[in-house]
Amino acid sequence: MALFQHLHATPSSPRLLIAVAAILAEWPLFVAAGLTGWLLLRQRDRLGIVRLIAAGGVALLIEALVSMFAFHPRPFAAGFGPAWVAHAANNSMPSTHVTLALIMAMGLAMRRYPRASAVVAALAVALAWARIYVGIHWPADMLGAALSAIVSVALVYGVEYGISTCMKLRRKRALAQRPQEPSIRPHAKHSHACQPTE
Q: Do 52 and 121 form a contact (C-beta atoms < 8 A)?
């Protein structure tokens, strides 16, 4: 709470900075999604796209479970200053925007796009700061977003590895149980000795 009060905009904060933060509280996610989608589609990386969609789905499921069993009110709903952008007073933990941006950053890093991953990670940091500054998230929500992103990506890769391992084992068993065809040995060629002529 003390960190939030230190980072949160007050009525005496510069209006221009609040306006910039209001933009950064939304648009970096769309920029990150556009950059990630463009890279993966350009390379026809269907596996990378499927992984990101799956990890995003897991993250949304985690957020729904947190909202159901451990609801966290947003700062403005809890009476900690005004929100400088319009937002519903729903669950704040974790930040959906930052979670999805971090998932994209990790996905790009694992697909060997280090520069793009660094750009998306920087956009995620900008998102995190801006959403705290305008008063719609706690700093702890950003830690929750990082944990949710890590768990989601790890779970997707773990399930993929498990499925791949099971398929390889099934192939090996199928090959082992397949009846082996009898090997055909080539007939030995008998050389006829030359008979001496009388």
A: no
Report pLDDT digits (tens) over 73-93. 999 999 888 899 989 889 999
Q: How many residues does the chain have?
A: 198
For the chain, the three-class secondary structure string (H helix, E strand, C coil) is CHHHHHHCCCCCCCHHHHHHHHHHCCHHHHHHHHHHHHHHHHCCCHHHHHHHHHHHHHHHHHHHHHHHHCCCCCCCCCCCCCCCCCCCCCCCCCCHHHHHHHHHHHHHHHCCCHHHHHHHHHHHHHHHHHHHHCCCCCHHHHHHHHHHHHHHHHHHHHHHHHHHHHHHHHHHHHHHHCCCCCCCCCCCCCCCCCCCCC
pTM exceeding the 0.85 threshold for the entire prediction: no
